UniProtKB/TrEMBL annotation:
Name the record gives this protein: Carboxylic ester hydrolase
Database matches in InterPro entries: AB_hydrolase_fold, Esterase_phb, Plant_Biomass_Hydrol_Est
Gene Ontology cellular component list: extracellular region
Gene3D superfamilies, per the entry: alpha/beta hydrolase (3.40.50.1820)
Length: 293
């Protein structure tokens, strides 16, 4: 078969099986040499939303692509998924570095923001509808990005992570590192946590990132106190207090912790008997992002 005919057949096959996860190498400045993969469904909405989905320590973009049902929701709802990947520090995100903890300074955070910019430009995405989610180290980086780049991310959903800047001053990011202070439940006052966020982007007065925080109460690797601290941080940033708790949402094991007006900006979930990591609830995350009814 002539090569061009083979190409026609192959592209027809890929249409039948739908879009696939594809690596992008030219997305822009990449100081920590991390990878970008994207999943662009065949049918996009006009001006599509973008979700960055971050793998846990030891993971990869390709394994995490299979780790949640987000790709099938992207097919149904027409948004774009970005899957960053790192092979640094046992495949953990650099949530402790000054680069990532400072707006525009560098680190994995800057590279991830450059991936978002690339996708916004390439697919005429909607800059008002950019989201970030992740599990474990990916959840820690979700908090970091929300703190350093509130102008980029409208909302975040963090599964079993820690507050923004919890690892600041630690020699490396992983909870397996010699310094367990953060992962074992480092505490600060809400004002101190909020100051970390404000100091990451001095002078910024724009929109803040809405945050959804998930954690298992039987997590001994990254203690549930870490989620309590993250909620202290984001509720202080938003100036909201804990107004209501609802047990049994989204399932019997969980209690939903709502801040302000029904948790519109800050919301937590704690799972009784849930360990590391809390399973991703795609529907609740997409509803919080406003991408699903
Ligand atoms: C350990 O990490 C915490 C932050 O998580 C930091 O405040 C502290 O300085 C670090 N200690 C050492 C010895 O690196
Ligand atoms: C919600 O639950 C937390 C954790 O148990 C508790 O500290 C807080 O007082 C509760 N808030 C309300 C409004 O009942």
């Amino acid at each position: 078969m002539a090569l061009h005919k083979l190409a026609v057949v192959l592209s027809a096959v890929s249409r039948v099986f739908g879009a696939s996860l594809t690596q992008v190498t030219n997305f822009g400045e990449n100081p920590t040499k991390i990878q970008m993969f994207e999943y662009v469904p065949d049918k996009l909405t006009e001006s599509p939303a973008i979700i960055v989905n971050l793998h846990p320590c030891g993971g990869s973009a390709t394994s995490w692509f299979r780790g949640t049902r987000m790709p099938s929701y992207a097919d149904q709802l027409g948004f774009i998924l970005i899957y960053p990947g790192t092979t640094n520090m046992n495949n953990c995100w650099d949530v402790q570095s000054e680069g990532s903890l400072t707006h525009g300074k560098g680190g994995d955070a800057l590279a991830i923001v450059n991936m978002v910019d690339y996708a916004l430009k390439t697919y005429s995405g909607d800059p008002e509808h950019v989201y970030v989610m992740g599990s474990s180290s990916g959840a820690m980086m979700t908090n970091v990005l929300a703190g350093s780049y509130p102008d980029v991310f409208e909302a975040g959903s963090a599964y079993s992570g820690v507050a923004h800047a919890c690892f600041a001053g630690a020699p490396s990011a992983t909870p397996m590192s010699p310094n367990q202070t953060c992962a074992q439940g480092l505490t600060h006052t809400p004002e101190e946590w909020a100051a970390f966020v404000h100091n990451s982007y001095p002078g910024y007065e724009g929109r803040r990132t809405r945050m959804q925080i998930w954690h298992g109460n039987s997590d001994f690797l990254v203690r549930p106190q870490c989620a309590v601290e993250a909620l202290k941080q984001w509720s202080a940033v938003w100036g909201e207090t804990n107004t209501k708790n609802v047990t049994g949402v989204p399932s019997a094991a969980y209690t939903q912790i709502l801040f302000g007006d029904n948790g519109a900006n800050v919301m937590g979930f704690f799972g009784q008997g849930v360990g590391h990591t809390a399973p991703v609830n795609e529907e609740f995350t997409l509803r919080f992002f406003g991408l699903m009814d």
